Amino acid sequence: MNNPIRSEFTETKIHIPWEEAVHLSEATETHHFLNDAGGIESHKTLHLKPMHCGHLVPTAGGACSKCSALICPSCLVMCPLCLGPIGPCCSRALLDVRGQEIRYCKSCYGKINRQRVLRKIISGFIRFD
Questions:
Q1: The whole model's pTM is what?
Q2: Which end of the chain is more exposed for a tag (fewer CB within 10 A), N or C?
Q3: In this structure, is residue 127 part of a structural domain?
């Protein structure tokens, strides 16, 4: 193969505003060559980065608001109380009345859990409708 006649490099960065940090989440290289028949061949390389959640994806879904780890789009969820993006490493799950799992960040989980325990303790004295 000959020397490339043209090269391109594209990268995707995630800016984390609460930490003033920038993480590289995706990189793509493309090299164009002249082949023996006089045509142009293109070779594209996509660099996958392992995310903190353990998945290998081309693009990160975002960064966890608690630990700033890069999380893939399928694992990144929003805390329903503080609306911060959280990954599986910083989330805790509670079941709602329908049996569905709701993921909260650690601080909001603590608030909800304290409310549930207090409600359970005083439910013997006060009736909740």
A1: 0.58
A2: C
A3: no
Check if the beta carbon of residue 108 is closer than 8 Å to that of residue 116: no
The pair phi, psi for residue 101, each rounded to 5°, is -80, 130
Contacts of 8 (CB under 8 A, 6+ apart): 28, 29, 30, 31
Cβ(106)–Cβ(90) below 8 Å: yes
The answer to whether 51 and 57 are in contact (CB under 8 A) is yes
Q: Is residue 42 part of a domain?
A: yes
**Domain of residue 56, residue span:** 6-122
Mean pLDDT rounded to a whole number for the chain: 81
pLDDT value, residue 19: 63
| Residue 103, both tokens | 């993921």
Closest CA to 89 of 56, 55, 57: 55
Q: In this structure, is residue 128 part of a structural domain?
A: no
Q: Is the pLDDT of residue 94 over 80?
A: yes
> What is the Cα–Cα distance from 69 to 61, expressed in whole angstroms?
11
Report long-range pairs for 38-43 (Cβ below 8 Å, ≥24 apart): 40/5
35 domain residue, yes or no = yes
